[in-house]
Amino acid sequence: MLPHIRIRNLRKTYGTFTALDGIDLDVAEGEVICVVGPSGSGKSTLIRCINRLEDFDPGSEITVGGTPVKPGRALEKVRAEVGMVFQSFNLFPHMTVLRNVMLAPMRVRGLPVPDAEKRARDLLARVGIGEQADKYPGKLSGGQQQRVAIARALAMEPKAMLFDEPTSALDPEMVGEVLDVMRVLAGSGVTMIVVTHEMGFARQVADRVIFMDGGRIVETGTPTQIFDAAREARTRNFLGAVLNH
Amino acid sequence: MDIFDTFFNVSVLIRTYPLLLTGLWVTIQIGVVSIAVGLILGLFLALVRLYAPAPAQLLARVYIDVMRSIPLLVLLIIIYYALPFVGLRLSPFVSAVSALSLVSGAYTAEIFRAGIEAIPKGQFEASGALGLSKRHMMVDVILPQAIRIVIPPLTNNCINVMKDTALASVVAMPDLLKQATQAQALAANPSPLIGAAMIYILLLWPLVAMVSRLERRFGKADR
Question: What is the reported pLDDT for B194?
């Protein structure tokens, strides 16, 4: 079977700085991958390349569902199939929570208002904020905002979801509610790539964990392989530092 | 003759105020049309300057800079007195509206550009990541937020345009100032000019007050 997301020789350089140094990665449909590593290791850049929020160097190749990710009309199609959740939520502050979730299905999929509203209300209920639908994002807590952001991405019925440190900007007591939603999602068959510092989540939910450093994939394996029996010293050092603080 | 008979001559004012009112109506027409055209032109220029292919961006930039550098009165005189030499004869009204909106469009473009650039990058990324087209990104996400930011400076620009309508009097446009100077000549008394000044103030003071209020309110919302 073809991989859902296929990455070959992905390179990204800013001037003399190499952010991504030749990444190869195949992600199967429905696979849940957690990407861990020190800050500046290129993990956010990697997932931002998958929907081309970040341009990458010529010679690099990414395909999603067989479609090459390159500028132009096809890119909007790829993006419609790949949901993204950001560290800073990025909800649209001038729209109610409900409109945030309804917007893309209406504009991109051409869903009529009643259908979009029904879908949005269902999703908001699923992430546990049904009763906040008519508020503006600014009135919600960080954890609630991030759950809206997840609902907004899911409203496009994406085949893959990218999470860029979704809990890093949250107060500690709100991390759990967001991870709970993601845990349920991971069991639903959506392909997920999650950049995270939540090692407990990665160990519990990931099919595969990727450790990155210096713009490269240092090591990849099942959570048990990575967390309990890492081959590389760099991986062991990093995990030792984050797990024993 | 004391100062009241000279500058605040009530009987002169009563005699000439119908004339002043017709002038006011012309002033409002010039102002409103110029503001509307300037807004559309400005939004268009801002989008070209930000997102069009490089040569068009450069063109927009040159246009904006030239229009912000040229004195409005000079531009107006060129349009009204020089263009006829190349066969383009515009009425005083069209000349005044053209000059005002060409310049207002340049200022408005800079205001819109600043507003759009003030929107956090995350808003562009989030709408892009959802698969929204550039057009929908602008119309649904970016511009509604940008317009809120630019309402105070845009209102300021509207005030400037309304004030600059007075320049139309040099191309024989019967606006408020022109009518006032005419009335002054007829009555051999400057009271109509004072009357016109009062009318300008009454017309624009509410706008000025509104800008201050909006700026205070938006200033608070930021904190």
Answer: 93
The 10 Å Cβ neighbour count of residue A223 is 17
Q: Which two tokens stand for residue B123?
A: 């808003």
How far apart CA A169 and CA B103 sit, in angstroms, is 45
Q: Are A186 and A196 within 8 A, CB to CB?
A: no
Whose tokens are 């907004």? That residue is: A152
Nearest by CB to B131, which of A76, A89, A93? A76
Angle between helices A142-154 and A172-186 (to 10 degrees): 20
Report whether B45 contacts B67 (CB < 8 A).
no
- Give the 3-state secondary structure of residue A81: helix
What gap in Å lies between CA B89 and CA B84, rounded to an integer? 5
Q: How far apart are CA A141 and CA A134, in angstroms?
A: 15
Here the tokens at position A80 are 């419609």
Q: Do the chains contact at B129 and A84, CB–CB below 8 Å? A: yes
Which among B126, B140, B148 is the nearest to A86, CB-wise? B126
Strands A216-221, A208-213: pairing is antiparallel
pLDDT tens-digit map of B100-150? 999 999 999 999 999 999 999 999 999 999 999 999 999 999 999 999 999
Q: How far apart are CA A47 and CA A83, in angstroms?
A: 11
Strand partners, A211: A36, A219
pTM of the full structure: 0.89
Strand partners, A18: A13
Do the Cβ atoms of A239 and A42 come closer than 8 Å?
A: no
Average pLDDT of the residues in A143-166: 96
Taking contacts as CB-CB distances below 8 angstroms, the residues of chain A near B136 are: 107-108
The neighbour count for residue B87, using CB atoms within 10 Å, is 6
Is there a contact between A179 and A147 (Cβ–Cβ < 8 Å)? no
Is A107–B125 a contact, with Cβ atoms under 8 angstroms apart? Answer: no
Cα B203–B207–B208 angle (5° rounding)? Answer: 105
State the burial class of residue A77 (Cβ atoms within 10 Å of its Cβ: 0-12, 13-18, 19+).
Answer: middle
C-alpha to C-alpha distance for A236 and A229, rounded to whole angstroms: 8
Tokens of A106: 């209406």
Cα A238 to Cα B6: distance, rounded to the nearest angstrom? 88
The ipTM assigned to this model is 0.94
Q: How far apart, in whole angstroms, are the C-alpha atoms of residue B189 and residue A230? A: 97
Q: Which residue type, as a one-letter code, is found at position B58?
A: L
